[in-house]
Design a protein that fits this description.
Strand content: under 5%
Structural class: mainly alpha
Helix content: over 70%
Number of helices: 14
Radius of gyration: 22 Å
Mean pLDDT: 85
Largest sheet: 2 strands, antiparallel
Shape: globular
Oligomer: single chain
Number of strands: 4
């Protein structure tokens, strides 16, 4: 009887599937859903699904930009402040009777400008991404607090609220839009050459430059993209809350980074997927939902996020070390 090749053996195929973070996360999410439903029979209901899907959508748009950055080997910790500023710009203009679509355009332009500044400081002035975006985070947050004097700005009109309240076949429209956008960018990351180069840049920046890729231009584009998407999140949040809250989104950047890393992104760059990051964010939302159902104080969630970040980073470090050891062993055997 002919023996199957190693890579076609059913056991090896199953092992490769388990090594995919997306597959593992899908299994974990399904188990979590059944566990949460056993705790609270109201889990699988529209009353629970709709607010969760809206919250996931709001942070999900910024997650797309953060995934791009992490794959290319950098990150942005100013997105929470950018979300707050863009939400404030949108709400303040709408409160002043400016056309709601012009208000959105102004908010997204403000976000894109902040991304441009981040990109120039990091790529042209060669400032460390952590220092650059930490500075931007502080400046932008201070600007929002100064402009608002720390007070929420409220608006409640059908035109203002339509972006977060509209539904299609009983499903929040913005969630449907997010899923379509997510599927599109996931496809582009897997199949479109321009987006595939993000992995090359994150894996080895010097090699990418030697092959003719303009790394600085690509990263400038990515910083503008993530800040613009943060603007989208800020606009949707203000529409949902019917207000702009100047001290909102504290710590959201850590949550997004944790979600990306859980989904398979490496803090060193060069790996990850859009679907994996989205599943990682869904995992955190279900975890938050589960803690609330169990009566755990909501403020403990931030501490849980920190523990997850440490755990995933350690796992990522051990995995990288294991790969390096295997590569060295292969190299030695090849030389001998």
């Amino acid at each position: 009887m002919k023996k199957l090749p190693e890579n076609l053996h059913p056991g090896s195929t199953f092992k490769r599937l388990l090594e995919q973070p997306e597959i593992t996360l899908v299994v974990v999410l399904v188990l979590m859903c059944f566990i949460l439903n056993s705790i609270n029979k109201g889990f699988f209901t529209p009353a629970n699904f709709k607010p969760m899907s809206r919250g996931l959508t709001i942070e999900g748009f910024t997650l797309i930009g953060m995934t791009f950055l992490l794959i290319s080997g950098v990150f942005d910790i100013s997105v929470g402040s950018v979300m707050a500023l863009c939400g404030f710009v949108f709400t303040a203009l709408a409160a002043a009777d400016v056309n709601v679509y012009l208000a959105i355009l102004a908010a997204l332009t403000a976000g894109a400008f902040i991304g441009l500044v981040n990109g120039i400081v990091i790529t042209r002035l060669e400032v460390n991404p952590f220092i650059a975006t930490l500075s931007t985070m502080t400046i932008v947050r201070g600007l929002v607090l100064a402009l608002s004097q720390g007070r929420p700005v409220r608006v409640s009109t059908p035109e203002f609220n339509q972006f977060s309240t509209s539904e299609t076949f009983g499903i929040p429209t913005m969630f449907i839009v997010f899923v379509v956008v997510l599927a599109g960018v996931d496809y582009m990351l897997r199949h479109i050459r321009y987006f595939r180069q993000f992995y090359f840049i994150g894996g080895n920046e010097n090699s990418a430059e030697l092959t003719g890729i303009n790394v600085k231009r690509v990263r400038l584009f990515l910083y503008i993209t993530v800040a613009t998407l943060a603007g989208v999140s800020g606009v949707l949040t203000s529409s949902r809350l019917e207000a702009a809250v100047p001290n909102a989104f504290f710590g959201v950047e850590m949550k997004l980074i944790v979600a990306c890393v859980i989904g398979g992104c490496s803090l060193n760059g060069g790996s990850g997927s859009m679907l994996g990051s989205a599943l990682g964010l869904a995992f955190l939302f279900l975890l938050d939902n589960g803690l609330v159902m169990l009566g755990v104080d909501i403020y403990w969630f931030t501490g849980v996020l920190g523990l997850f970040l440490i755990g995933v980073v350690l796992l990522n470090t051990f995995s990288s070390s294991s790969i390096e050891r295997k590569q060295k062993m292969v190299g030695k055997s090849f030389r001998t």
